[in-house]
UniProtKB/TrEMBL annotation:
Matching SUPFAM superfamilies: P-loop containing nucleoside triphosphate hydrolases
Membrane topology note: Multi-pass membrane protein
Keyword Nucleotide-binding: yes
Name recorded for this polypeptide: Lipoprotein-releasing system ATP-binding protein
Source organism: Halopseudomonas bauzanensis
Length: 236
């Protein structure tokens, strides 16, 4: 298997194609993410960051180009294949974590496995507990999401995204509603996860300081990649 988790070739996205409302929001995007890379995606509001993340997450289909996930072309694949690939290769963390308030922290972390195969095995529960330990929340496993802070909720969402051991974790403004100190600690967690689990992480952020803490930063402007740089200050 190649060391490339993701490869975008000439990706474009046009909404409402062929209508008077047609608008092209992504053009000629070429991007490769290697195994275990931690990359920040930055750009002004409306530059196309979420649109790009939705394409990479196989939640939407490009209008042009090809998107390879773990070496497999995806553009012409059917819904079943895309769903399978999404479940097997991707983890998602969003600004609003969508934890289920009726379930405990531990059950929320287990949810992707429960959805996949019903009642979780003892091994799955042990994995969920070890992930909660990893994100510093093992003592809160039995709490409900409403009983913990926003930063802790986001850590639960990160543990949940990791339980399927995805080779690529996608995070769309995961710290958008957190104060700057908590946001920095969530990024620190991304760096640790990236080192320990070796999963590639692509994280959208508006915050230049958080982006600078990542080894690589890709910048979008008006739907095009205008820079792709390795950080000098990052330890990675
Ligand atoms: N479903 C859609 N139909 C039509 N236009 C869309 C659709 N989704 C997004 N757009 C447009 O695409 C452009 C890029 O939006 P996108 O949300 O990707 O930007 P962004 O960089 O993530 O912005 P922000 O930082 O504000 O979240 C915007 O002009 C937006 O209005």
């Amino acid at each position: 298997m190649s060391d490339e988790v993701l490869c975008l070739q000439g990706i474009g996205k046009t909404f409402n194609q062929g209508t008077p409302l047609e608008s092209t929001v992504l053009r000629d995007i070429d991007l490769r993410l290697g195994r275990g890379e931690l990359t920040a995606l930055i750009g002004p509001s409306g530059s196309g960051k979420s649109t790009l993340l939705n394409l990479i997450g196989l939640l939407d289909v490009p209008s042009a180009g090809e998107l390879y996930l773990q070496g497999r072309p995806t553009r012409d694949s059917d819904d079943t294949t895309r769903t399978h690939l999404r479940n097997q290769a991707l983890g998602f963390v969003f600004q609003f974590h969508h934890l289920i308030s009726a379930f405990s922290v531990l059950e929320n972390v287990l949810m992707p496995l429960i959805i996949r195969s019903g009642r979780p095995s003892a091994d799955a529960v042990e994995l969920a507990r070890s992930l909660l330990r990893e994100v510093g929340l093992e003592d809160l496993a039995d709490k409900k999401p409403t009983e913990i802070s926003g930063g802790q909720q986001q850590r639960v969402a990160i543990a949940r995204a990791l339980i399927t051991r995805p080779p690529l974790l996608l995070a769309d403004e995961p710290t958008g509603n957190l104060d700057s100190k908590t946001a920095a600690s969530v990024f620190e967690l991304f760096r640790r996860i990236n080192e320990q689990f070796g999963c590639s992480i692509l994280v959208v952020t508006h915050d230049p300081r958080l982006a600078a803490s990542c080894p690589r930063t890709v910048q979008l402007v008006d739907g095009r990649i205008v820079s792709d740089e390795l950080s000098k200050s990052s330890s990675g």
